């Protein structure tokens, strides 16, 4: 079972989803769980089925002391790059917590200081610590819901299924139909990037 990083501090776990996508936002979440919180199913969102993630989302929202979710959209990603956009998303999600955070634990190895709060970057943190795993589930489910919504506008890209990731089907659709306002123009959308008309 995953654990809490510290039982002495008010600790927020944060993670993001959608960094490697060609379209849609990068979505970050931050979660503070009560010290007594326990759950045997919560894990890194990538290790869970979509059904399990969708079942866990309302449970996390109900049981968390505080949580926040933020989308950073393609226009901003193209301006500041995906790493900075991911960190900006985590900062915005932390802003939503309305709590005096004493410690931040971050999935991965890159972060920027947030309001002088001590932070720890943890590689594969979403498979080690409950609050990061919970954040990873919220980030993924909120982002997936957003991609399913914009799928209705541009069904030819099948975002309902591929969620904006660079599948062969998604790249074939870009080749055939060009790009949309939801695509990240700074990303290598096709192997032969120069053939793309912006």
From TrEMBL:
Binding site for a divalent metal cation: 15-16, 107
Keywords associated with the record: Cytoplasm, Endonuclease, Hydrolase, Manganese, Metal-binding, Nuclease
Principal subcellular localization: cytoplasm
Pfam families found in the cross-reference section: RNase_HII
InterPro entries: RNase_HII (IPR022898), RNase_HII/HIII (IPR001352), RNase_HII/HIII_dom (IPR024567), RNaseH-like_sf (IPR012337), RNaseH_sf (IPR036397)
UniProt cross-references to Gene3D superfamilies, sorted A to Z: Ribonuclease H-like superfamily/Ribonuclease H (3.30.420.10)
Subcellular location: Cytoplasm
Reaction(s) this enzyme catalyzes, per UniProt: Endonucleolytic cleavage to 5'-phosphomonoester
Listed GO MF terms: RNA-DNA hybrid ribonuclease activity
Domain RNase H type-2 span(s) in chain numbering: 9-198
Cofactor binding note: Manganese or magnesium. Binds 1 divalent metal ion per monomer in the absence of substrate. May bind a second metal ion after substrate binding.
Cofactor (UniProt): Mn(2+); Mg(2+)
EC number(s) stated in the UniProt entry for this protein: 3.1.26.4
EC category name: hydrolase
The protein's role, per its UniProt record: Endonuclease that specifically degrades the RNA of RNA-DNA hybrids.
Record-linked NCBIfam families: PRK00015.1-3 (NF000595)
Family note: Belongs to the RNase HII family.
Protein name, UniProt field: Ribonuclease HII
Organism: Galbibacter pacificus
Lineage: Bacteria, Pseudomonadati, Bacteroidota, Flavobacteriia, Flavobacteriales
């Amino acid at each position: 079972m995953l654990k809490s990083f510290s039982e002495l501090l008010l600790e927020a776990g944060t993670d993001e989803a959608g960094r490697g996508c060609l379209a849609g936002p990068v979505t970050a979440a931050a979660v503070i769980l009560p010290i007594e919180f326990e759950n045997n199913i919560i894990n890194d969102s990538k290790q869970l089925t979509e059904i399990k993630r969708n079942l866990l989302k309302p449970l996390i929202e109900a049981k968390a002391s505080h949580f926040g979710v933020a989308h950073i959209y393609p226009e901003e990603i193209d301006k500041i790059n995906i790493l900075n956009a991911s960190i900006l998303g985590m900062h915005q999600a932390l802003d939503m917590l309305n709590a005096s955070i004493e410690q931040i634990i971050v999935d991965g190895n890159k972060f920027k200081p947030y309001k002088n709060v001590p932070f720890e970057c943890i590689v594969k943190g979403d498979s080690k610590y409950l609050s990061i795993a919970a954040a990873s589930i919220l980030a993924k489910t909120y982002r997936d819901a957003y991609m399913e919504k914009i799928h209705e506008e541009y069904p030819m890209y099948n975002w309902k299924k591929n969620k904006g990731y660079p599948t062969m089907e998604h790249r074939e659709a870009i080749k055939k139909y060009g790009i949309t306002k939801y695509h990240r123009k700074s990303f290598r959308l096709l192997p032969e990037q120069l053939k793309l008309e912006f």
